[in-house]
Amino acid sequence: MDAEYIIEMRDICKSFYGVKILHDVNFKLRPGEIRGLLGENGAGKSTMMRILNGIYSKDSGKIFVNGEEAHFTLPKDAREAKIAFVHQEIALSANLTIAQNMFLGLEITRGKYFLDDAAMRQAALDALKSLGLDLNVDTVVGTLSIAQQQMVEIAKALMQDARVLVLDEPTAALSEKEVRFLFQQMRRLKEKNVAIIFISHRLNEIEEITDSLTVLRDGYIIADGTPTKGLNSSEIIAMMVGRSVTQFFDGEKPQGTGEVVFEVRGLTNQRVRNISFQLKKGEILGFGGLVGAGRTELMSAIFGLDPIESGEMFLHGKKIVNRNPREAIQHRFGLVSEDRKHNGLILVHSIARNLTMNVTSTFIKGIHYDKAKEKAIVDEYGNKLSIKMSGMDQLCQYLSGGNQQKVVISKWLASGADVLIMDEPTRGVDVGAKSEIYRLMHSLAEEGISIIMISSELPELINISTRIAVMHEGELNKIFDREELAQYDADDLQKEIMFYATGERD
Amino acid sequence: MGKKEINLKSLFKGVGGAFFALILMVLALCVFTDTFATRLNFVNLLKQITCNCLLSFGLTCCLITGFPDLSVGSHVALATVEVCMYQNMGMSLEVSILLTLAVGVVIGAVNGFIFSRTGMPAYIVTLAMQNVLRGIAYVLTNGGAVIVANDVGMKFFNLSNATIANWIPYSTLILVVAFVIINTMLTRTVFGRHMYAVGGNSSTAVYSGIDVKNIRLVVYTISGLLAAIAGVLTASRVYSGQPTTGVGFEGEAIASAVLGGVSFTGGIGTLSGSLIGILIMGVMSNGMNLLQVNYYWQLVVKGIIILVAVYVDQVKRSKTK
User: Which keywords, in A-to-Z order, does the entry hold (chain A) (predicted)?
Assistant: First the structure.
């Protein structure tokens, strides 16, 4: 006897470190329904799906599968309940064959210990065939295209006779033709009464393939099960945006001056195409866009980490080339990476070491090590940015996220950066430290430092930036100048930015 | 005065346990043997640790920068052969030594160059070099030892075997000089600071504009030079070139450094710490010889002690987190 809903999530709440991410989330899904799950970056989509997958535990609420309450504590539990996940990042082992991957952890055995390769190869072949895929099951997965790998993942998920399939941004890496193929498969599954949860930022795809929508905003369900038919993209965007924008920072935006400090003309490489913009003295130029729009890649190219194929850069009107980060630093650029643990800090080293890393040669000359001068530098920035530390020898791994970020920022200030690129500067820091970092950015801009800020949070982008550039799939679609920004109220501006970020307008 | 004390303290920071263990071992040997605390044994001990000490200094630099140099053991063997052969070819002692050291620099630079430019793992590059160098040492000698035919005034022999005031071998002075130079490099120069940065997180180092490739190149060159010096002194001590010597020396050198608090994953460690590790390994071998422990059992004991020491260190580190 089948229940009306294959999945029902009732009043799900979830908090991390005292911050509530999901507020009484209610979600119902019918068999054979293709549901689009929408929301801005950070709206709570992944958290919600991870709870359904058993990766996170819920704080409160109930989950029903086919009318029966389910208790998922491990991904295995979800798998046994016939819910299959295809994650955004490919989760296959590149060194194993298709057949080996499809049965990883579920190996068919002869007796208890011996692999039954023939049976697994045959079953893998059948699974691929049922999806209309013509692939050799002995092919090593690493040699397949991303799209093919994705199809293998889907085949793997379906092989377990899934009743619910969750696709997390499956089209991000696919070409148009491959997307067509995927949609064809999705429709075929729908006929077999499989329910699909489809997460995507591409509104045209949502409009085309989904039957209904669920929209999350700030951890609240805004709509659940609303039929897609009859909605246009601006109505959909209106549901997604509209987060309160005064929540973190209510100060004035830095004004900036007219003086152009830095200019990029026609920058193109493998990841970005024909990017041009100007950065003015004392402004914060925000870069908006969806995750994967090429913003980080653009900054890597500017900073000399990635090669540039064509295009020019000008600093104070003079043409410059940053062939590597060393040259960028000499040109007084600084880059606060989005991944401070990998690219910003040496966690096993002290605050002093990290903070003075770019300026070691100012206090160590030959074998003369001027410890007092080193301490003076650490004290200066420690006080200026009010870094909470037990002493300059404290290891960075013991600092909070906010304080770690301040050490990274100090490092660049100490090296005299006057073009400071900050990639998701408030990622992984708590709310209090967030507003502290905003204030800091503001005062740095007032001092005449020009800041480029990448942010995937619209309220942050709107609140902090003097001007806003929006990127979509490697291209810079729009720059909102100050006058333009002033025309919109916060809600409309979020919608406008979202239009450009999703490529609905360019 | 006060400043000096602080420096001494920081010199032994983080290796207090190892230092304590060393003192305990020395005291125990003083009590349980009547041969340990003698002038003769003291001189002997200093001679015995010379080779491992130099290799371990080199490995300390390599490990701080992130990865080991596995070629140093066979490099020692090749250098012992070289320095004797050059003399037998008619070169003066000084020229022979300089030539051996020059070859050492080249070998180290080749290691560093391949590792830093091709991105092949340092383990593989230096492991391959280990075989190459051992092979060359055998090829040059046909597998036999090379005896120095004409050592004018025993100058070569005296390098390792003559002592100052009957207490300190000349070779020990070389250790002191090497220690001072390398310790200064690590603690007081920009280059040394950058070595720690590369080992601590090479990606962050790249973002900070540090020339990771050239730092690795230089560090492996230093390791090569130190291995060549170790080879020259080893040859002088046994008065011959031995293509079979040096097997497993890289393991002992790594163990000494790690015992002294150098992190196997890079970015952490001091030369003074390594020195304590070197002394522990040296006193342990020396003591077990005096206690007439069978050599085969000595290997077993050493292996176990390394495991325990590194485990204790790891527990200590995870506790402070």
Answer: ATP-binding, Cell membrane, Membrane, Nucleotide-binding, Repeat, Sugar transport, Translocase, Transport
* Chain A touched by B214 (CB under 8 Å): no
Looking at residue A364, what is its pLDDT? Answer: 92
Alpha-carbon distance of B208 to A242, in angstroms, equals 39
Q: Which two tokens stand for residue A352?
A: 């002093």
What's the angle, vertex CA B320, arms to CA B318 and CA B321, rounded to 5? Answer: 65
Interface confidence, given as ipTM, is: 0.79
Q: Is residue B10 part of a domain?
A: no
Q: Which residue of A has its CA nearest to B184?
A: A367
Tokens matching residue B319: 């506790």
pLDDT the model gives residue B5: 44
| Cβ count within 10 A of residue B171 | 27
- Region(s) of chain A under CATH 3.40.50.300: 7-240, 244-332+465-506
B143 assigned to some structural domain: yes
User: What is the reported pLDDT for A243?
Assistant: 60
Q: Give contacts of A353 with chain B, Cβ < 8 Å.
A: 193, 196-197
Q: How many CB atoms lie within 10 A of CB A355?
A: 30
Tokens of A383: 């006080």
> In this structure, which CATH number among 3.40.50.920, 3.40.50.300, 3.30.70.870, 3.40.50.720 belongs to the domain A7-240?
3.40.50.300
CB A227 within 8 A of CB A36: no
In-domain check, residue B147: yes
* Residue numbers in B near A330 (CB within 8 A): 209
**pTM score, whole prediction:** 0.79
Residue A37 backbone phi and psi in degrees, to 5: -110, 120
A394-449 confidence digits (pLDDT tens): 999 888 888 999 999 999 999 999 999 999 998 877 767 788 899 899 999 999 99
Contact state of B188 with A357 under an 8 Å Cβ cutoff = no
pLDDT at A293: 87
Q: Which domain holds residue B203?
A: 40-309
Topology of the domain comprising A244-332+465-506: Rossmann fold (3.40.50)
Q: Is the pLDDT of residue A1 over 70?
A: no
Please tell me what DSSP assigns to residue B92. -
Provide, as residue numbers in chain B, all residues whose Cβ is less than 8 Å from the Cβ of A323: none
Q: What is the pLDDT of residues B298-310, one digit of tens each?
A: 889 888 887 887 7
What CATH number does the domain containing B266 carry? 1.10.3470
Burial class (CB in 10 A: 0-12, 13-18, 19+), B163: middle
**Does residue B157 sit within a domain?**
yes
Q: Is B213 on the interface with A (CB under 8 A)?
A: no
pLDDT tops 80 at residue B8: no
Number of domains chain B contains: 1
Each residue of A345-401: pLDDT tens digit?
Answer: 999 999 999 999 999 999 999 889 999 999 999 999 999 998 888 889 999 988 888
Measure the CA–CA gap between B288 and B295, rounded to whole angstroms: 8
pLDDT digits (tens, 9 = 90+) for B41-69: 999 999 999 999 999 999 999 999 999 99
Average pLDDT over residues A174-182: 79
